[in-house]
Amino acid sequence: MFKPVELFIGLRYTRAKRRNHFISFISLFSMLGIAVGVWALIVVLSVMNGFQKEVRDRMLGMSSHITISDFSNEMKQWQPIIDVVSSHPQVIGAAPYISGEGMMTMSGQVQGVMVRGILPQMEPQVSSVEAKMIKGSYESLESGKFRIIIGSELAHSLSVDVGDKITLITPEASISPAGVLPRMKRFTVGGVFEVGYHQYDSGMVFMHIDDAARLYRMKGMVSGVRLKVKDIYAAPNMTRPLSTLLNDEYWVSDWSYRHANYFRALKIEKTMLAVILFLIVAVAAFNIVSTLVMVVTDKQSDIAILRTLGLSPRGVMGVFIVQGTVNGLLGTLFGGLVGVITALNIDSWVPAIENALGIDILPSSVYYISELPSDMHWGEVGFIVLAAFVLSILSTLYPAWRGARIQPAEALRYE
Protein backbone atom coordinates (compact mmCIF):
# COMPACT_ATOMS: atom_id res chain seq x y z
CA MET A 1 0.00 0.00 0.00
CA PHE A 2 2.79 2.42 0.86
CA LYS A 3 4.67 2.74 -2.43
CA PRO A 4 6.99 5.72 -3.03
CA VAL A 5 4.40 7.56 -5.14
CA GLU A 6 1.73 7.33 -2.42
CA LEU A 7 4.24 8.44 0.19
CA PHE A 8 5.38 11.34 -1.99
CA ILE A 9 1.86 12.58 -2.71
CA GLY A 10 0.73 12.13 0.89
CA LEU A 11 3.67 14.15 2.21
CA ARG A 12 3.06 16.80 -0.46
CA TYR A 13 -0.57 17.14 0.65
CA THR A 14 0.64 17.52 4.22
CA ARG A 15 3.08 20.32 3.35
CA ALA A 16 0.91 22.10 0.80
CA LYS A 17 -1.04 25.24 1.67
CA ARG A 18 -4.67 24.24 1.29
CA ARG A 19 -7.12 26.45 -0.49
CA ASN A 20 -9.65 25.79 2.29
CA HIS A 21 -8.22 27.48 5.38
CA PHE A 22 -10.89 25.89 7.58
CA ILE A 23 -9.44 22.45 6.74
CA SER A 24 -5.97 23.69 7.71
CA PHE A 25 -7.38 25.04 10.96
CA ILE A 26 -9.04 21.71 11.84
CA SER A 27 -5.90 19.79 10.88
CA LEU A 28 -3.72 21.97 13.12
CA PHE A 29 -6.02 21.62 16.08
CA SER A 30 -6.29 17.86 15.62
CA MET A 31 -2.48 17.68 15.96
CA LEU A 32 -2.55 19.99 18.97
CA GLY A 33 -5.36 17.95 20.51
CA ILE A 34 -3.32 14.76 20.27
CA ALA A 35 -0.28 16.58 21.65
CA VAL A 36 -2.25 17.96 24.62
CA GLY A 37 -3.78 14.55 25.32
CA VAL A 38 -0.43 12.76 25.28
CA TRP A 39 1.17 15.52 27.38
CA ALA A 40 -1.63 15.41 29.95
CA LEU A 41 -1.52 11.61 30.18
CA ILE A 42 2.23 11.50 30.76
CA VAL A 43 2.24 14.31 33.33
CA VAL A 44 -0.83 13.18 35.30
CA LEU A 45 0.25 9.53 35.46
CA SER A 46 3.76 10.57 36.51
CA VAL A 47 2.35 12.77 39.29
CA MET A 48 0.03 9.98 40.43
CA ASN A 49 3.00 7.59 40.46
CA GLY A 50 4.88 10.16 42.53
CA PHE A 51 2.06 10.53 45.06
CA GLN A 52 1.67 6.76 45.27
CA LYS A 53 5.39 6.28 45.82
CA GLU A 54 5.49 9.06 48.43
CA VAL A 55 2.54 7.66 50.38
CA ARG A 56 3.91 4.12 50.12
CA ASP A 57 7.32 5.19 51.40
CA ARG A 58 5.75 7.05 54.33
CA MET A 59 3.44 4.16 55.09
CA LEU A 60 6.18 1.55 54.91
CA GLY A 61 8.48 3.79 56.92
CA MET A 62 6.35 2.81 59.93
CA SER A 63 4.81 -0.44 58.74
CA SER A 64 6.97 -3.50 58.19
CA HIS A 65 7.59 -5.01 54.78
CA ILE A 66 6.87 -8.50 56.15
CA THR A 67 5.29 -9.55 59.45
CA ILE A 68 5.67 -12.94 61.13
CA SER A 69 3.14 -13.66 63.86
CA ASP A 70 1.90 -16.56 65.89
CA PHE A 71 -1.64 -17.76 65.22
CA SER A 72 -2.46 -17.11 68.89
CA ASN A 73 -0.77 -13.65 68.77
CA GLU A 74 1.53 -14.81 71.58
CA MET A 75 4.98 -15.70 70.28
CA LYS A 76 7.18 -17.08 73.03
CA GLN A 77 10.49 -17.63 71.21
CA TRP A 78 11.21 -14.75 68.86
CA GLN A 79 15.03 -14.72 68.78
CA PRO A 80 15.33 -18.15 67.04
CA ILE A 81 12.83 -16.95 64.43
CA ILE A 82 14.95 -13.87 63.70
CA ASP A 83 18.03 -16.08 63.42
CA VAL A 84 16.28 -18.32 60.88
CA VAL A 85 14.75 -15.63 58.64
CA SER A 86 17.91 -13.50 58.70
CA SER A 87 19.56 -16.21 56.62
CA HIS A 88 17.38 -15.18 53.68
CA PRO A 89 19.47 -12.92 51.36
CA GLN A 90 16.64 -10.38 50.95
CA VAL A 91 16.11 -9.77 54.68
CA ILE A 92 18.13 -6.78 55.94
CA GLY A 93 16.44 -6.12 59.29
CA ALA A 94 14.26 -7.77 61.93
CA ALA A 95 12.74 -6.68 65.23
CA PRO A 96 10.11 -8.03 67.67
CA TYR A 97 6.99 -6.09 68.60
CA ILE A 98 3.92 -6.18 70.81
CA SER A 99 0.73 -4.85 69.28
CA GLY A 100 -2.33 -3.71 71.21
CA GLU A 101 -5.20 -1.26 71.29
CA GLY A 102 -6.16 1.36 73.81
CA MET A 103 -7.55 4.80 74.51
CA MET A 104 -5.44 7.82 75.39
CA THR A 105 -7.10 10.30 77.72
CA MET A 106 -6.01 13.75 78.81
CA SER A 107 -8.09 16.52 80.42
CA GLY A 108 -11.36 14.81 79.53
CA GLN A 109 -10.39 14.20 75.89
CA VAL A 110 -10.23 10.61 74.62
CA GLN A 111 -8.59 9.23 71.49
CA GLY A 112 -8.38 5.62 70.32
CA VAL A 113 -4.85 4.46 69.48
CA MET A 114 -2.84 1.51 68.27
CA VAL A 115 -0.07 0.66 70.73
CA ARG A 116 3.22 -0.82 69.58
CA GLY A 117 5.80 -2.08 72.01
CA ILE A 118 9.31 -2.02 70.51
CA LEU A 119 12.92 -2.70 71.34
CA PRO A 120 14.55 0.72 70.77
CA GLN A 121 17.90 -0.78 69.79
CA MET A 122 16.37 -3.04 67.10
CA GLU A 123 13.41 -0.98 65.83
CA PRO A 124 15.48 1.30 63.50
CA GLN A 125 16.26 -1.81 61.45
CA VAL A 126 12.62 -2.07 60.33
CA SER A 127 11.06 1.40 60.70
CA SER A 128 11.94 5.09 60.49
CA VAL A 129 10.32 6.23 63.74
CA GLU A 130 13.68 7.37 65.14
CA ALA A 131 14.30 9.56 62.08
CA LYS A 132 10.78 11.06 62.26
CA MET A 133 11.11 12.51 65.76
CA ILE A 134 10.28 16.24 65.91
CA LYS A 135 10.22 16.66 69.70
CA GLY A 136 11.74 14.82 72.60
CA SER A 137 14.06 11.87 72.28
CA TYR A 138 13.74 8.39 70.86
CA GLU A 139 16.22 7.20 73.51
CA SER A 140 13.68 8.11 76.22
CA LEU A 141 12.06 4.70 75.74
CA GLU A 142 13.58 2.73 78.60
CA SER A 143 12.36 -0.43 80.25
CA GLY A 144 10.33 0.27 83.37
CA LYS A 145 10.21 4.05 82.86
CA PHE A 146 6.76 3.93 81.23
CA ARG A 147 7.49 6.62 78.68
CA ILE A 148 5.62 6.86 75.42
CA ILE A 149 6.16 8.39 71.98
CA ILE A 150 3.06 9.71 70.20
CA GLY A 151 2.18 11.16 66.79
CA SER A 152 2.04 14.90 66.15
CA GLU A 153 -1.71 14.95 65.39
CA LEU A 154 -2.48 12.94 68.50
CA ALA A 155 -0.38 15.34 70.58
CA HIS A 156 -2.26 18.27 69.06
CA SER A 157 -5.74 16.78 69.59
CA LEU A 158 -4.98 15.92 73.24
CA SER A 159 -3.02 19.16 73.81
CA VAL A 160 0.01 17.37 75.28
CA ASP A 161 3.72 17.98 74.93
CA VAL A 162 6.95 16.29 75.92
CA GLY A 163 7.06 15.69 79.66
CA ASP A 164 3.28 15.70 80.18
CA LYS A 165 1.51 12.83 81.90
CA ILE A 166 -1.07 10.94 79.87
CA THR A 167 -3.35 8.01 80.73
CA LEU A 168 -3.64 4.88 78.58
CA ILE A 169 -6.73 2.68 79.03
CA THR A 170 -6.52 -0.88 77.70
CA PRO A 171 -9.42 -3.20 76.75
CA GLU A 172 -8.32 -5.77 79.38
CA ALA A 173 -10.20 -5.54 82.64
CA SER A 174 -8.91 -5.87 86.18
CA ILE A 175 -10.92 -7.41 88.99
CA SER A 176 -10.85 -5.39 92.19
CA PRO A 177 -12.93 -5.19 95.39
CA ALA A 178 -14.88 -2.43 93.64
CA GLY A 179 -15.71 -4.74 90.74
CA VAL A 180 -14.44 -5.13 87.20
CA LEU A 181 -12.49 -2.06 86.17
CA PRO A 182 -10.63 -1.19 82.96
CA ARG A 183 -6.86 -1.30 83.23
CA MET A 184 -5.26 2.14 83.22
CA LYS A 185 -1.65 3.25 83.29
CA ARG A 186 -0.06 6.69 83.48
CA PHE A 187 2.70 7.35 80.95
CA THR A 188 5.06 10.25 80.44
CA VAL A 189 5.27 11.67 76.91
CA GLY A 190 8.90 11.15 75.93
CA GLY A 191 8.71 12.34 72.34
CA VAL A 192 6.56 13.30 69.36
CA PHE A 193 7.01 11.96 65.82
CA GLU A 194 5.57 13.07 62.50
CA VAL A 195 5.47 10.73 59.52
CA GLY A 196 3.14 12.74 57.28
CA TYR A 197 0.59 9.91 57.14
CA HIS A 198 -2.65 10.55 59.01
CA GLN A 199 -3.24 7.01 60.22
CA TYR A 200 0.06 6.95 62.10
CA ASP A 201 0.32 10.59 63.20
CA SER A 202 -3.14 10.51 64.78
CA GLY A 203 -3.44 6.99 66.08
CA MET A 204 -0.08 5.32 66.74
CA VAL A 205 1.95 5.31 69.96
CA PHE A 206 5.24 3.59 70.81
CA MET A 207 6.54 2.33 74.13
CA HIS A 208 9.28 -0.02 75.31
CA ILE A 209 8.43 -3.65 74.66
CA ASP A 210 8.89 -4.53 78.35
CA ASP A 211 6.36 -1.87 79.37
CA ALA A 212 3.92 -3.13 76.73
CA ALA A 213 4.39 -6.70 78.01
CA ARG A 214 3.45 -5.61 81.54
CA LEU A 215 0.51 -3.56 80.27
CA TYR A 216 -0.96 -6.34 78.13
CA ARG A 217 0.13 -9.20 80.40
CA MET A 218 2.46 -10.75 77.83
CA LYS A 219 5.53 -11.29 79.96
CA GLY A 220 8.14 -13.26 78.02
CA MET A 221 6.02 -13.10 74.84
CA VAL A 222 5.67 -10.84 71.79
CA SER A 223 3.00 -10.39 69.12
CA GLY A 224 5.41 -11.15 66.30
CA VAL A 225 8.49 -10.19 64.35
CA ARG A 226 8.69 -7.44 61.74
CA LEU A 227 11.08 -7.69 58.78
CA LYS A 228 12.61 -5.24 56.33
CA VAL A 229 13.71 -6.47 52.90
CA LYS A 230 15.94 -5.05 50.18
CA ASP A 231 13.24 -4.84 47.53
CA ILE A 232 9.73 -4.07 48.79
CA TYR A 233 8.24 -5.33 45.51
CA ALA A 234 9.80 -8.73 46.16
CA ALA A 235 8.08 -9.00 49.56
CA PRO A 236 4.87 -10.68 48.23
CA ASN A 237 6.99 -13.43 46.68
CA MET A 238 8.96 -13.99 49.88
CA THR A 239 6.09 -14.98 52.18
CA ARG A 240 5.93 -18.56 50.93
CA PRO A 241 9.71 -19.26 51.18
CA LEU A 242 9.88 -17.69 54.66
CA SER A 243 6.88 -19.70 55.80
CA THR A 244 8.65 -22.84 54.56
CA LEU A 245 11.80 -21.90 56.50
CA LEU A 246 9.63 -21.70 59.63
CA ASN A 247 7.97 -25.07 58.89
CA ASP A 248 4.59 -23.36 58.36
CA GLU A 249 4.24 -22.83 62.10
CA TYR A 250 3.70 -19.06 61.82
CA TRP A 251 1.61 -16.69 59.75
CA VAL A 252 3.73 -14.67 57.31
CA SER A 253 2.12 -11.63 55.64
CA ASP A 254 3.51 -8.80 53.53
CA TRP A 255 2.69 -5.10 53.18
CA SER A 256 0.61 -5.57 50.00
CA TYR A 257 -1.72 -7.92 51.88
CA ARG A 258 -2.15 -5.70 54.93
CA HIS A 259 -2.78 -2.54 52.85
CA ALA A 260 -4.46 -4.28 49.92
CA ASN A 261 -7.61 -2.12 49.88
CA TYR A 262 -5.67 1.15 49.90
CA PHE A 263 -3.33 0.26 47.05
CA ARG A 264 -6.16 -1.36 45.09
CA ALA A 265 -8.12 1.89 45.37
CA LEU A 266 -5.11 3.87 44.13
CA LYS A 267 -4.72 1.51 41.18
CA ILE A 268 -8.39 1.81 40.23
CA GLU A 269 -8.25 5.61 40.53
CA LYS A 270 -5.14 5.76 38.36
CA THR A 271 -6.70 3.47 35.73
CA MET A 272 -9.96 5.41 35.52
CA LEU A 273 -8.12 8.73 35.31
CA ALA A 274 -5.96 7.36 32.49
CA VAL A 275 -9.08 6.24 30.60
CA ILE A 276 -10.71 9.65 31.03
CA LEU A 277 -7.62 11.50 29.85
CA PHE A 278 -7.18 9.12 26.92
CA LEU A 279 -10.56 10.33 25.68
CA ILE A 280 -8.80 13.63 24.90
CA VAL A 281 -6.60 11.74 22.45
CA ALA A 282 -9.66 9.96 21.06
CA VAL A 283 -11.46 13.27 20.44
CA ALA A 284 -8.37 14.61 18.68
CA ALA A 285 -8.28 11.46 16.56
CA PHE A 286 -11.90 12.06 15.54
CA ASN A 287 -10.77 15.50 14.39
CA ILE A 288 -8.31 13.72 12.08
CA VAL A 289 -11.27 11.80 10.66
CA SER A 290 -13.23 14.99 10.00
CA THR A 291 -10.16 16.70 8.55
CA LEU A 292 -9.45 13.89 6.10
CA VAL A 293 -13.11 13.61 5.10
CA MET A 294 -13.08 17.30 4.15
CA VAL A 295 -9.73 16.86 2.37
CA VAL A 296 -11.14 13.95 0.37
CA THR A 297 -14.12 16.08 -0.63
CA ASP A 298 -11.83 18.99 -1.53
CA LYS A 299 -9.45 16.78 -3.54
CA GLN A 300 -11.99 14.84 -5.59
CA SER A 301 -10.68 16.20 -8.88
CA ASP A 302 -7.09 15.40 -7.88
CA ILE A 303 -8.14 11.87 -6.97
CA ALA A 304 -9.90 11.45 -10.31
CA ILE A 305 -6.82 12.63 -12.23
CA LEU A 306 -4.56 10.28 -10.25
CA ARG A 307 -6.94 7.40 -10.95
CA THR A 308 -6.93 8.14 -14.71
CA LEU A 309 -3.13 8.17 -14.59
CA GLY A 310 -3.19 4.64 -13.21
CA LEU A 311 -3.19 5.02 -9.43
CA SER A 312 -5.15 2.13 -7.89
CA PRO A 313 -7.81 2.52 -5.17
CA ARG A 314 -5.29 1.06 -2.70
CA GLY A 315 -2.88 3.77 -3.81
CA VAL A 316 -5.46 6.46 -3.12
CA MET A 317 -5.98 5.00 0.35
CA GLY A 318 -2.24 5.08 0.89
CA VAL A 319 -2.11 8.81 0.04
CA PHE A 320 -4.61 9.79 2.70
CA ILE A 321 -3.34 7.30 5.26
CA VAL A 322 0.12 8.86 4.91
CA GLN A 323 -1.33 12.35 5.31
CA GLY A 324 -3.34 11.48 8.44
CA THR A 325 -0.49 9.41 9.91
CA VAL A 326 1.93 12.33 9.57
CA ASN A 327 -0.49 14.58 11.45
CA GLY A 328 -0.90 12.00 14.20
CA LEU A 329 2.83 11.31 14.37
CA LEU A 330 3.72 14.99 14.72
CA GLY A 331 1.12 15.51 17.46
CA THR A 332 2.18 12.35 19.31
CA LEU A 333 5.89 13.11 19.19
CA PHE A 334 5.42 16.75 20.21
CA GLY A 335 3.09 15.82 23.08
CA GLY A 336 5.40 13.02 24.20
CA LEU A 337 8.48 15.28 24.18
CA VAL A 338 6.75 18.08 26.11
CA GLY A 339 5.20 15.54 28.50
CA VAL A 340 8.56 13.92 29.32
CA ILE A 341 10.23 17.31 29.86
CA THR A 342 7.36 18.44 32.11
CA ALA A 343 7.29 15.20 34.13
CA LEU A 344 11.05 15.30 34.72
CA ASN A 345 11.03 18.95 35.86
CA ILE A 346 7.63 19.47 37.47
CA ASP A 347 9.05 19.22 41.00
CA SER A 348 11.23 22.27 40.30
CA TRP A 349 8.82 24.16 38.03
CA VAL A 350 5.90 24.15 40.49
CA PRO A 351 7.86 25.95 43.28
CA ALA A 352 9.03 28.51 40.71
CA ILE A 353 5.42 29.12 39.60
CA GLU A 354 4.31 29.40 43.24
CA ASN A 355 7.01 31.99 43.95
CA ALA A 356 6.22 33.95 40.78
CA LEU A 357 2.45 34.05 41.38
CA GLY A 358 2.59 34.20 45.17
CA ILE A 359 0.33 31.17 45.61
CA ASP A 360 0.63 27.85 47.42
CA ILE A 361 -0.76 25.01 45.31
CA LEU A 362 -0.44 22.39 48.06
CA PRO A 363 -0.36 24.25 51.41
CA SER A 364 1.37 22.27 54.14
CA SER A 365 -1.37 23.27 56.60
CA VAL A 366 -3.89 21.29 54.53
CA TYR A 367 -1.92 18.56 52.74
CA TYR A 368 0.63 16.17 54.20
CA ILE A 369 2.51 16.19 50.89
CA SER A 370 3.12 19.87 50.17
CA GLU A 371 5.26 19.24 47.08
CA LEU A 372 4.15 17.88 43.73
CA PRO A 373 6.10 14.62 43.32
CA SER A 374 6.71 12.99 39.96
CA ASP A 375 7.79 9.45 39.17
CA MET A 376 7.86 8.93 35.42
CA HIS A 377 7.90 5.37 34.11
CA TRP A 378 9.33 4.99 30.62
CA GLY A 379 7.14 1.95 30.02
CA GLU A 380 4.01 4.05 30.55
CA VAL A 381 5.38 6.80 28.31
CA GLY A 382 6.04 4.29 25.54
CA PHE A 383 2.57 2.79 25.87
CA ILE A 384 0.88 6.21 25.77
CA VAL A 385 2.82 7.33 22.69
CA LEU A 386 2.25 4.02 20.89
CA ALA A 387 -1.47 3.95 21.73
CA ALA A 388 -1.96 7.53 20.52
CA PHE A 389 -0.08 6.80 17.29
CA VAL A 390 -2.07 3.62 16.61
CA LEU A 391 -5.32 5.50 17.27
CA SER A 392 -4.21 8.17 14.81
CA ILE A 393 -3.55 5.55 12.14
CA LEU A 394 -6.92 3.88 12.72
CA SER A 395 -8.68 7.22 12.37
CA THR A 396 -7.37 7.55 8.79
CA LEU A 397 -8.88 4.31 7.49
CA TYR A 398 -12.46 5.44 6.94
CA PRO A 399 -11.66 8.74 5.11
CA ALA A 400 -9.04 6.94 3.02
CA TRP A 401 -11.58 4.23 2.11
CA ARG A 402 -14.07 6.90 1.05
CA GLY A 403 -11.42 8.52 -1.13
CA ALA A 404 -10.65 5.19 -2.80
CA ARG A 405 -14.33 4.74 -3.75
CA ILE A 406 -14.50 7.99 -5.76
CA GLN A 407 -15.17 7.29 -9.42
CA PRO A 408 -13.12 9.46 -11.85
CA ALA A 409 -16.01 10.02 -14.25
CA GLU A 410 -18.33 11.22 -11.51
CA ALA A 411 -15.67 13.49 -9.97
CA LEU A 412 -14.76 15.13 -13.33
CA ARG A 413 -18.31 15.46 -14.69
CA TYR A 414 -18.68 19.15 -13.74
CA GLU A 415 -15.02 20.17 -14.05
Number of domains: 2
What fraction of residues sit in β-strands? 15-25%
Helix content: 40-55%
Whole-Å distance between the termini?
Answer: 29 Å
Radius of gyration: 32 Å
Q: Write the H/E string, N to C.
A: HHEHEEEEHEEHEHEHEHHHHHHH
| Overall pLDDT score | 82
**Number of H- or I-type helical stretches:** 14
Sheet with the most strands, sense and barrel status: 6 strands, mixed, barrel
Q: Spatial order of the strands in the main sheet?
A: 2-3-8-5-7-6
Strand elements, count:
10
Report the principal-axis shape.
Answer: elongated
Low-confidence stretches: none
Topology:
Layout: H1 4-15, H2 21-62, E1 66-69, H3 79-85, E2 91-106, E3 109-118, E4 133-136, E5 147-151, H4 152-158, E6 165-176, E7 179-193, H5 198-203, E8 204-208, H6 209-215, E9 224-229, H7 239-245, E10 251-254, H8 255-258, H9 260-298, H10 300-308, H11 313-357, H12 378-394, H13 397-404, H14 408-412
Parallel strand pairs: 3-8, 5-7
Antiparallel strand pairs: 1-9, 1-10, 2-3, 2-6, 2-9, 4-7, 5-8, 6-7
Helix pairs in contact: 1-11, 2-9, 2-11, 2-12, 9-11, 9-13, 11-12, 11-13
